[in-house]
């Protein structure tokens, strides 16, 4: 899940997305932030469930508070 950092107290607060879709938990993924669209892109990484590599690409829209998987 995405978290936000509360200014001035350095604590993270989990953000629940508005839809039930979200990426599988992976390690070593690539994460990019697009200032223009206020979106976070997460791609690839190694799945913790079965130790396989993921080829998924996801976008989290901060404005919509929702995940979208690219097919």
Structure description:
A hairpin with a 4-residue loop joins strand 4 (30-34) and strand 5. The chain is globular, with a radius of gyration of 13 Å. The protein has strands at 2-6, 11-15, 26-27, 30-34, 39-43, 46-47, 57-61, 66-70. It has 71 residues and is an all-beta fold. Helix content is 0%, strand content 48%. The model has no long low-confidence stretch (mean pLDDT 81). It is built from no helices and eight strands. It has a four-stranded antiparallel sheet, with no helix packed on it. The protein has a two-stranded antiparallel sheet with strand order 1-2.
Concise structural overview:
By secondary structure, this protein is mainly beta. The protein has strands at about 1-5, 10-15, 25, 30-35, 40-45, 45, 55-60, 65-70. It starts with a strand and ends with a strand.
SSE arrangement, N to C: EEEEEEEE
Helix content: under 10%
The backbone outline, from C-alpha atoms, is globular
Give, in spatial order, the strands making up the sheet with the most strands: 4-5-7-8
Low-confidence residue ranges: none
Q: What's the total number of strands? A: 8
Instruction: Tell me about the largest β-sheet.
Output: 4 strands, antiparallel
Structural class: mainly beta
